[in-house]
Amino acid sequence: MSAEDGRPLWEQLADANRELPSGERLQKVLAAVGFGSRRTAEDLIAAGRVTVNGEVAILGRRVDADNDLVEVDGAPIGVKPDLVYYMLNKPAGVVVTASDTHDRPTIMELLPSEPRVFSVGRLDADTEGLLLVTNDGQLANRIAHPSNGVDKEYLVEVTNGAVAPGHLRQLRDGIELDDGMTAPAKVSQPEPGILRLTIHEGRNRQVRRMCEAIGHPVRRLVRTRVGPLSDRTLQPGEWRRWTNDERNAMIEAVAATTHRGDRSGKYDPTP
Ligand code: URA
Predict the structure, then answer these.
(1) Over 219-253, what HEC string results?
(2) Count of Cβ atoms closer than 10 Å to residue 136 Cβ
(3) Which residue's CA is the nearest one to ligand 1's atom 4?
(4) pTM of the model
(5) Which atom belonging to ligand 1 lies closest to the Cα atom of 127?
(6) 151-226: same fold as 3-76?
(7) Superfamily of domain 151-226
(8) 215-258 pLDDT per residue, tens
(9) What is the CATH number of domain 85-147+229-260?
């Protein structure tokens, strides 16, 4: 088995589990699922970056790849085969719900009906762009966590012309909304009246309320990135699965935000 044989990571892990008797050396298990050579894996262990069932592993540790939870930098190394991860380019007018009381089109009509999935956070009906959808509740919670979630980037067309530097600064520093101050945002104005805004909170209608607060209500709102994931080639209404690299990148991004804040929501792939 090779870490770069192109098959989904969970298939490689399943093979690794089949090939390796329980009580296999940790560095061999790590190497088998793509963490480089055994030497590289040994370095990771020696650096204290690998935990088994929450405890920092020592060199020579043996693990049961079926039952032990192995994590590198807080990110689990395995992927459960029944989990699915989609990204959808949500068109305006489509609602993020399983069924709409007003009979509007829903995202569920754009996605496979099985297995049952749910969105990672929400977008307003009028908001367009990148929506992540999965049946992995734990990863979804970590991505969408209101205070420690990963970055979400938006392209915003605002009304009332160019936004003055003082107002851009207000967006950057934090704005008093009726549910409290917003965390500092990254903001640029690539064209007059067009903002690129990055926030990591996920409060209700947050971007619209932030822009309203500075006197520039939103005309059009498009989400362009969630953490490391973006895809400019997806047409409105189109979806695709994440690649293994994208899933690994998201797990790393989630682990980084876990390190930056509380660890209560630490991602754990076991049911
Ligand atoms: N902020 C909003 O105001 N709306 C969205 O849909 C997403 C972020």
Answers:
(1) EEEEEEEECCECCCCCCCCCEEECCHHHHHHHHHH
(2) 21
(3) 205
(4) 0.71
(5) 6
(6) no
(7) Alpha-L RNA-binding motif (3.30.70.1560)
(8) 999 999 999 999 999 999 999 999 999 998 898 899 888 878 76
(9) 3.30.70.580
